[in-house]
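Record type: monomer structure entry
Structure origin: computed from sequence
Chain ID: A
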Amino acid sequence: DQGVRLVGEDQPYRYEVANQGQVNLTNVRMVLSIPEGMTFVSSTAAAQPRVQGNRVEFLIGTLPVGQRLSFTFTLRGTRPQEFLITTETSAAELRNPSRN
């Protein structure tokens, strides 16, 4: 549920990545950019992310062909506003990262 939340309420987001290619993806990482007015709360990812200000980096590792991985991360708004978060997923074998 990505609906409206009151200031101070947690907002969970689901992240999913899939390897639909023909080679294993290595050094897979996702960088979450959080706008001013939101804070990182927690994650269900296997490894806890590295949080540096409004940048949160998740080290995913290797994603074999055909594998799908998902986890949730939770953010909290600290002021009333409409927020847009962005993610960028990259791997050693990809020329361009995927941005959402």
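Annotation 1: The longest strand covers residues 68-77.
Annotation 2: The mean pLDDT is 93.
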